Each structure stands twice: as C-alpha cells, then as structure tokens.
Amino acid sequence: MFYRRAGIRHTRYQSERQIWPLPFDRRLAILLFFFALVAPFLLDRLHLVGYLLPWIIWSTAALGLNFLMGGAGQIHLGYGALIGIGAYTTVHMARAGIPFEIALIGGGLLSAAVGIVFGATALRVKGIYLAMATLAMQYIVDFVIVHFPAISGGTQAALTVPRVTFLGIPVVGDLPSYYVALAVCIIVTLFMLNVKRSSFGRALAAVREKDYAAAVIGVNTFRFKLTAFWVSSFIAGVVGGILAVCYYRTISPDQFHLELSIQLVAMVIVGGLGSVLGSFFGAALIMFAPIVINQLIGSLAVTLGLGISADLRAHLPLMLYGALIIGFLLWEPLGLAKIYANIRNYFLVWPFRHARH
Predict the structure, then answer these.
(1) What does the angle CA 81 – CA 87 – CA 92 come to, to the nearest 5 degrees?
(2) Which of the residues 135, 267, 316, 339 has an alpha carbon 20 to 30 A from that of 25?
C-alpha cells in the first residue's frame, strides 16, 4: 500500500520532527506545489481569477486568524477590519510612490500596531468578553474608515489601486497577481507549519490549553498572547494589501465589514482550529458551497419544473449553507481537517482495524 506507515523507523529526533514524515505526504506536497505553479497554464481565466486566486488569498487570511484562534486560543471577531487597514495602508503608500514590497510590509505593521493596541486591552478579559472587545474594534475601524475622507474618500467612494511592481516585475494582469498571492500564501503556510515545532509554538499551545497552568510553569501568558495578536494582525495587513492589489484592484469601505470577519471565523471553525490544512478546507467550503448549492437549486428547479421565486432562490442557498456548517460541527466539531485525518489514519493501517478509534 503506497500510504502505509510500515517501515518508518525514526533513529533521530530530526527525522521524527519532520513536517511530513511519510514519503507519500512529501510527494503529495511536492505535487500540489508544482500544480500551483503551473495552474495558470492549465486553467482558463474564469477558474484562475474567479476561483483559484481568491481561494489562495482567503486561505492565507484564514491561516493568520487560525494562528490566533487555534494556536493561542483567542477568539477574534474583528479580523476583517485588520485586513481593511492593511489594504488601505498599502494602497495609500503605493499611491505615494513607495515600492509595493515596502508598502505591503507597512500595511502589515500598521495592522499589527492596531491589533496589538486592542489586543493589550482585550487580553484583560476572556471568552465572550474578548469576542465583544474585538467586535468593538471592528465597528470602530469601520467608522474611522468611512468617516475620514482622507482614508477612503467617503462612504460611497472607491480607491483605485495604482500600478505597482513586485521585485521589479509589474503586477499587471492575471499571472503576476496570481504568483504574488501564491508566494505570500506559501510563506505564511511554511511559517504555520514550522511554528508548531518551535518553543514559541509550544508556549502558545500551553497558553491555549490552560493559561494559568502555563503561568505556573514560567510562561509569560500576557506576552505570548500579545505576540500572537501581533503576528496574526500582521498577516491580516499583508493579506489586505495582496487582496487590494492582486484581486480587488479597487477598494471601498463595504468590502471589510463585519460579514467578512464572520466568514473568516467560519472558515477557521469549519476547517479545524489549529490546522494548517483545515484553513484551506474551510476557505474552500465557505467560498464555494453557496455557489454549488445555488447552481444545484437552479438545476433542480428547471428539471422538476418548480416555480421558485427570486427571493426564495436568493435566500435558500444561504439557509442550506448554514445548515451545512451546523451539520459539520455536529458531526465532527474539530472540522474538515479531522475528517481528513480520520480517513488518512484508516488507510495507514488498512486492512487492519487497530486505529479504528
């Protein structure tokens, strides 16, 4: 069986701590990497720009939020606001003639600064109170962006993204935009895969499980929580810049409201808290499930001759989409990543049943 664990005998800690200890996992990762590189030449423009590019960007955003929620156990309902800060900062810096690479980092740093300010005050509370504190940040940032014309130009205004270059290459057209977004996604993914193996990641895991127990053994819980907020907010700012330059091209305040934050939280929860792979699964489900459900309803209505009103057809996919999320959470609370892990573990010992539980 090509997916078996048989024959794996670790004789060094380095080999045991590999990201992908199984040869099949390494080959699969390499295959997916090369597919991502050649995808623009295999897919048409609709699938590349309409599906693959936004999935990569939102998966990167879900990774950043998952670092905070799954890695440190801190809920955040204002992540969309941090993405908006990064988007507007990057665009304004680019319009001022600052190179895109520096503008991208500047957007991440400003988002991190705002996130750490609210994080420092919010970390005095826990649970639902922390959620309310981050929700307040979402509304405050929305208000500032809308009511300060110097930032957004006004309530109904839209800010056009200027032409930029990334490492000397003009980010114009589909190919450069896709590869810039892919490069950022790969960097964030590698960071998430490796941080769990570091002392920082182990400290975050201790804080996530029992923060007072972590404090007893010498972990500075406040510092590590604050650092998690900083890192997560920085990733949000960078994603905002990528979103503005590589996908939206024109940004407006209504793109970063509370709905975006709720969708990102749903991506993390449905995909699996603390799972890198789950962030990609969750982003795919949240993005594509409404589209698929809407098409299925339309096809069934035409096939069966059902007269479905436009209003019902607009809201029925949302209802089914919500029921789908609830079903996943009831069936497997640890998300899609755990479902994948269960299937994977089954084939690791097939045809035996030693890993049934």
Answers:
(1) 125
(2) 267
pLDDT over threshold 60, residue 7:
no
Paired tokens of 114: 């705002």
Interacting residues of 159 by C-beta distance below 8 A, sequence separation 6+: 88, 91, 152, 153, 250, 251, 252
The secondary structure element, H or E, covering residue 250 is strand 250-251
| Alpha-carbon distance values, 307 to 292, 297, 301, 303 (Å) | 20, 11, 7, 11
| Angle of the 336-349 helix axis to the 276-304 helix axis, nearest 10 | 100
Q: What is the chain's mean pLDDT, rounded? A: 84
Q: What is the pLDDT of residue 1?
A: 45
Domain that holds residue 62: 21-256
Question: What are the respective helix, strand and coil percentages of the chain, to the nearest 5?
Answer: 75, 0, 25
Residue 226 maps to a domain: yes
pLDDT in tens, 130-139: 888 888 888 8
Residue 326 CA to its chain's centroid (Å): 20
Residue 331 has pLDDT above 60, yes or no: yes
Quick one: which of 66, 26, 17 has its CA closest to 231?
66
Report if residue 216 sits inside a domain.
Answer: yes
Whether the per-residue pLDDT at 236 is higher than 90: the answer is: yes
Torsion from C-alpha of 276, 191, 266, 320, nearest 10 degrees: -50
Instruction: Examine residue 197 and state whether it is found in any structural domain, yes or no.
Output: yes
Is 114 strand, coil or helix? helix
| 10-19 pLDDT tens trace | 677 666 677 7
pTM of the model: 0.88
**Does residue 324 belong to any structural domain of this protein?**
no
Joined tokens for residue 23: 């040869």
Which whole-number Å values give the CA distances from 256 to 86, 231, 240, 260, 296, in the listed order? 11, 20, 9, 6, 29
- How many domains are contained in the chain? 1
Residue in the block written with tokens 């991502």: 36
